[in-house]
Prior knowledge:
By secondary structure, this protein is mainly alpha-helical. About 80% of the residues lie in helices and about 0% in strands.
Amino acid sequence: xxxxxxxxxxxxxxxxxxxxxxxxxxxxxxxxxxxxxxxxxxxxxxxxxxxxxxxxxxxxxxxxxxxxxxxxxxxxxxxxxxxxxxxxxxxxxxxxxxxxxxxxxxxxxxxxxxxxxxxxxxxxxxxxxxxxxxxxxxxxxxxxxxxxxxxxxxxxxxxxxxxxxxxxxxxxxxxxxxxxxxxxxxxxxxxxxxxxxxxxxxxxxxxxxxxxxxxxxxxxxxxxxxxxxxxxxxxxxxxxxxxxxxxxxxxxxxxxxxxxxxxxxxxxxxxxx
Length: 273
């Protein structure tokens, strides 16, 4: 009957919720557990909170340097991607001719190329240009890989912006840059915030390209630091999970702050584009 279906559906939702949050629960309790408690009962909440796991993880993992490297690469890459791709998307969306349509489909094709297929050529080129093991080399590579996705994301939204505002500004004597930055750019706020969040997540959490291009210890970012630290401290799970929690906090705060723009911006661009 109807009551039984509702009850079963409620139980199903509870089970799915527990399944989703279980990794976070495990990570949190492991990060504040001592080694004896972890061996005795892995899933129980600790009797004593061991905050020293966090201080020891910071001291032994070079976390401060990794955080600085991640912040530099993420902020610079996302800023450049946003600036370049919003202008490119505006032109592609407004210029409906064969040349710009070809550029658009080239971007579509670029999105289906897996990183693994060009990993070796990228490494060889970066070594040849002396950009290997440099933060600016990594930033350039990430910008190149994110341009296609961001242009396609933003161009769909630009098509939904009425041209009347731009035409009125042009009649008043505004140039193309004035029209873009004063009229169009402010109207693109939802999709810009969406692209900022998605690109930040991509650059911050990147592991494959980081492992390929950032091999020296002094240029490692957060994902690489976690990877090597976990390998070196597989016995000290408390330290490894403490580092994991600290690494997750900045990007989690950003995501929770701007999450309403992610689905809204993508849906708006997809429907109206």
